């Protein structure tokens, strides 16, 4: 009985790669330094998996930035503006595509399916000259081999690569991305041939798009692609890995009929229908990679339950063709529980991070083979039982209050246009009001103060003084810049979810439970293990202090329930919506306390609402219904004159625009500039939006400073589709990752652009 891991986190147990990348980008270390850190990480991961007994160990799942960008490099599909002149793609061109450079913005970035991982979207047009321009997959395979580890090289599959791409500028309407299949396959063939020559006996293609609701034309592309590759692939065992949802029945048929393919990997954690398809239709003689260990959560596997599933599958695929695997790449979970020295012991016994999941996979494989590690299994069973019965998990009052919300409606009594009128009387804002999304740069000094306070090295008093000074600095800066609606800058927050989680009951925290979000950026999702409640106000102190420093409106700043849910590791012992309703009730209390404290504008960030959208269409309406309901619960109790803002880090919401309107916020600010104003097309197509809206006017993910003209130009584009009296002017997202040297001139130009246009309207 064999074991397999779909992919592994790259960042390292203590974010070693992050620090190496950032130091290289800041020119504080050399390319060789960076390469050394990366090679050490890869070595330790391969050795760890080999040591744990994993048979099919992946390679090429490491990346300096993103695996889709790696594929773009492999195919030589560099957009012309990055000035690549052929040859092997180096750090220069690679990181310019990822992050932009002094003269060119970065490529678009978007969320990887329904995760919080972001990939760099390939831009493809009819004129791309594909060529084999990055040998990374082969180099990594050889590197592992030299260490004595024979790996399964992993490639983003050709069809998923194209389906995740976007058409280049100018050909958006007319171009079929799949028409490029014939042009990219020759490069894939070169890579496959080199891997074979280097000694690979297996190859894995990640084709997660196949779980989406694809039409027959797109499904046909899979058939075409793998038929075309068949002869090159001959002699190799070929695994097509799918994940993140139940696979549709049609797609399952297509997948299991692909030529030249010998193995299929399925996510058996999300959804239950794939298992049924496997039971009734799995083809004879093929390998079944059964993803029973959850790659997207941190809970210890229920080994007894998995084992019984595996026994069933054994009867279908046969003992020698069943492989125990993870549900998806472990990229989406934390790295190693060993480094969690501060976690409560009982809670810790309920958890498994990537390193522990590797051990679980192997233990399951051995158990199926009749070599069950009884001690390991019984410790696991004891932990499962303790989690079920632990009193710290249950709070009956919360359960009751949340259950009462189901099936009812909550919304503000007055409609949005009447509310906006009442708010304008109070706030008296100019046309095209300017604001920011919340955070200001988090300086090293600021992080030091927070860290020292947490470690009890400085007193509460000193901490409060330092934070207030920082807030005052940010307030004064915004006044100087002449921004209309201010923020306090969020200096007291390490992270927009963790900050709230730390003050809510039912949450636990890790020290090193980092998960890659994009590039070098990682998040440390809290763990929701129990019923959620709010013992005390969480933000009122800081928001009131900030409001007292200015006569301009100060936005109260909260994270919404859906985002807290989507950016946490969520308990898997009750439905997600139940947990979400519990959080909504806690945030509702906070909103009402802010209002009582005299805060007239309250922003409830729902940055992650879109990313929780189930991938399968059949499940989306239900999710949107409870997610939007949860948001409305938070603010249904405020007065008309209190202006509720929300913010989303996602522009691709054409398909959910009606749900967004149904959130009934007074103002929404949305990421926009990195997606080429895709969002505006919704309004161009005639959707009426009556509330205030601020599509981001510049990209905060890049250090580049936009000019006044450029911003004015963007605003003008927005004015062409949105009425001037609902338009707000703001950056794409919070500024915490930027430097003041970037933020000051950028905001200055933003305000100048708004003022310029006010004179013209
Ligand atoms: N208010 C948060 C900030 O500005 C929002 C961040 C986000 O949307 N990701 O940092
Ligand atoms: Zn954002």
TrEMBL record:
Record's keyword annotation contains Acetylation: no
Keyword Transcription appears in the UniProt entry: no
Domain Cobalamin-independent methionine synthase MetE C-terminal/archaeal, chain residue ranges per copy: 432-755
BP-aspect Gene Ontology terms: methionine biosynthetic process; methylation
Binding site for Zn(2+) 2: 658
Positions that bind L-methionine: 437-439, 490, 605
Active site: 701 (proton donor)
Entry keyword set: Amino-acid biosynthesis, Metal-binding, Methionine biosynthesis, Methyltransferase, Transferase, Zinc
EC number: 2.1.1.14
GO molecular function: 5-methyltetrahydropteroyltriglutamate-homocysteine S-methyltransferase activity; methionine synthase activity; zinc ion binding
Pathway: Amino-acid biosynthesis; L-methionine biosynthesis via de novo pathway; L-methionine from L-homocysteine (MetE route): step 1/1
Broad class of enzyme this protein falls into: transferase
Residues annotated to bind 5-methyltetrahydropteroyltri-L-glutamate: 18, 116, 521-522, 567
Cobalamin-independent methionine synthase MetE N-terminal domain span: 3-315
Cofactor note text: Binds 2 Zn(2+) ions per subunit.
Cellular component GO terms held in the UniProt record: cytosol
Catalysis: reaction(s): 5-methyltetrahydropteroyltri-L-glutamate + L-homocysteine = tetrahydropteroyltri-L-glutamate + L-methionine
Binding residue positions for Zn(2+) 1: 647, 649, 671, 733
InterPro entries documented for this protein: Cbl-indep_Met_Synth_N, Cobalamin-indep_Met_synthase, Met_Synth_C/arc, UROD/MetE-like_sf
Cofactor list: Zn(2+)
Described function: Catalyzes the transfer of a methyl group from 5-methyltetrahydrofolate to homocysteine resulting in methionine formation.
Family assignment from sequence similarity: Belongs to the vitamin-B12 independent methionine synthase family.
NCBIfam families: met_syn_B12ind, PRK05222.1
PANTHER family: 5-METHYLTETRAHYDROPTEROYLTRIGLUTAMATE--HOMOCYSTEINE METHYLTRANSFERASE (PTHR30519)
Protein name as catalogued: 5-methyltetrahydropteroyltriglutamate--homocysteine S-methyltransferase
Origin species: Manihot esculenta (Cassava)
